[in-house]
Design brief:
Pfam family, one: PTE
Mean pLDDT: 95
Largest sheet: 6 strands, parallel
Protein name: Phosphotriesterase
Cofactor: a divalent metal cation
GO molecular function: hydrolase activity; zinc ion binding
Number of helices: 11
CATH class: Alpha Beta
Oligomer: single chain
Number of strands: 11
Strand content: 5-15%
Keywords: Hydrolase, Metal-binding
Helix content: 25-40%
Length: about 300
Amino acid sequence: MSAVRTVLGDIRPEELGVCDAHDHLFLRSPRLPGQELDDTSAAQAELEAFRAAGGSAVVQWTPYGMGRRAAGLPPLSRATGVHLVGATGLHQAAHYEPELVDGLRGRLAEVFVCELTEGIGTSGVRAGLIKVAGGFHALDAHTRWTMTAAAEAHHATGAPIAVHLELGTGALDVLDLLCDALGVPGHRVILGHLNRSPDPVTQRQAAESGCWLAFDGPSRAHHATDWRMPQAVRDLAEAGYGDRLLLGGDTVVAGARSVDGGPGMPYLLRRVRPLLAAAVGAELVDRILTEHPGQAFAVDWK
C-alpha cells in the first residue's frame, strides 16, 4: 500500500491534508553565512503559524550535510500537530566542504538508501524523499554523480526524487538524465523552482513527462514568481496539466520566516492560495494543496 514516509512513521496519502510541498525548518550552508535556520523555537513557532493558517503538513527538502536536525523533527511534529517529511540527498557542491563530498565517493547511493530505509544517523528518522540539484542551464559532473546515485536509490526503494533547478533552468536536461537515461518514471520526479524561469513552453514540455512541477518560493518576487504564477498555473491547467502541480514556500534563511518578519510558511495559504483561486478556481487549488502532495510523495516502499 502506498504511504507517505513522515518523521513519525508512514501515513496514508490522504492524511497529509493541506501541504507545503517544499520548505525548510533547518538549513545551513557556507553560501548563506549568518542566515542559518537553526533555531528550534523559531521553527516551532513557524509551524504553529502555518497550522493556524490551515496547514497540516510540510515537506522539508534539506538534504545530507546541511543541518537537517533530523532528531529534532519528531518532537516538532508532535508539539505542533503538523506532519513532517524529511529528506536525504545531496545539494550542489558549493554548499559543502570538499572533504565531506570526498567522503561520500563510492557510497552515495548506499547512504541515500540507508537514510530512506533505516534512518538518518542515529536519529531513527527515515527520509521520505531524495533531494538533488542541477546547475544553471547545465548538469556538471557533481550533478550527474548525485543524480545517478539518486536514481539508484529510487530503484532500490521507490522514493521520489526532488530536484532543485538553479534559477529554474535545466529542467529538460534533468529529465533527459533521470528519466530517459537512468529509468526513473516521470511521476517520481519533482522539479523545484521551475517557476523561477517562467518559460511556458519548457513548463509544458516538462509536464508532458508526467513529472511534478513545484511552484515554490512564492514570496520571492525578484524571481518572477508572485506576479507570473497565476498566469503560469492557468496556462498549465488549460493545457491539461493542472494535475501535475505542487505549491511550496521554500524558506531558506531566518529572515524569511513569518515569525522573524518575513512571509514564511503561512504566506502560501494566506496570500498565494486566494491569488491562485481567483485565477483557476478554488477547487483546483485545493487539490494542488491536498491531493497532489499525497500522490507525489506516497510510495509503495520496497
